[in-house]
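Morning!

This is the sequence you dropped in the shared folder:
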Amino acid sequence: MATLRARDEVVRMLDTARAERRRADAEAAALRELMDQDAVTGCASLRAEIEALEQRRSALLRLEAMTGPVARPTGRALETSLRELVDRLRWRSGSLRVR
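The structure's back. Tokens below.
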């Protein structure tokens, strides 16, 4: 009798373990499907963005060909204006320090 109860208990534990494994496998499969779909969506989004950027570049190149080369900023004006802005902010607040 004790052997039968022990056998039944082992069978129940194995059934429970199988059911948990099936649930875990189903959850993992659903997660993989979701991640695959996210990857496909992200890839499509990146391709669309690349296409839009290539079209903008082509349009800019055509515009440059019609009007001549455009002067490229050197960065000096930006540095100067940022430095002036920081100086003004420092003067107003008295708390900003510029090195």
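Headline: The chain has two helices and no strands.

More detail when I'm at my desk.
O.
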